[in-house]
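Q: How would the structure tokens look for this protein?
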Amino acid sequence: MDSHSPPVFPTELEREIFKIAARSYPQSIPKFIVVAWRVKLWVEPLLYRTIIFIEPENAHMKSQIMPRVPIHSRDTLSPILQYKGQPFFADATRNLLIHIKEIGDAELVFSHCRGIENLWLFVPPSTGSRILSQLADLPLKQFHGSVVQLFGSPEQIDFSHRFFSQITHLSLLDNTMETLSSFFLLPNLTHLSVDAFLAGEFHTVLQTCPWLRVFVATEMIRMPPIIDNYPERDVFAKDPRFVVIDYDLTAGLRDWQMGTYSGNDFWSRAEDFVARRRSGEVDISQYRLD
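A: Here is the predicted structure in token form.
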């Protein structure tokens, strides 16, 4: 090599540098793509690793998304899906947040993004059953949403459905007792999050699901605490797997996004808290994660 030539990295090292930079600064991926064709091939899939799809008129929901994170609508995402094709998105996309009214939009996304492992879903209750078969064919590990929306009513919820067959982390946005009746049917469930309003069923859940590693009860921020005032809380609160966190839509969405980019979300924090309760580092009477 000429002593005056600029240094040249091995291709493998260059690729890893760009991929690390893209994961660390996802908002910079569009700039990386125009550096060179080879860089585009390396980092463009990372641009779509996490897709956030929100209707343009939903200003409140859009305001909950972290700064500089791309927010897609039908007008922006549909042409990209059709141009890049199903094989690209099946390989690229692992995390999806979707909040829509037109179920056809969801069907289009799910028909292309066949590799989704982490899903936050908002769909109209009357339409959820239309996409249930599509969701059941995904390699879903984490689901955040309402199972009542998916099945149509609390009475129709079927925890033996293959939709649940691979799910390990389930964060339910329902507050009906029927959603707590059959968690023992979920073969791979290790992490569960439900509304603290359902405290009357917590002991049963912990007793019938000994394989659960983390059981999170969510309490609304700025509302009176539920678990602290629940007269029979000691029946379940001293189980080291039990954790209470403060929660609202803003905190939940920001937390989900941080988890997709860094792995640091309320699940990981709750895991650490449970480990410290088990070891005695945190007193077993302390169940609230600040």
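The CA atoms of residues 212 and 274 lie 11 Å apart.

Strands lie at 50-54, 95-99, 118-122, 142-145, 169-172, 191-195, 214-220, 242-247.

Upvote if useful.
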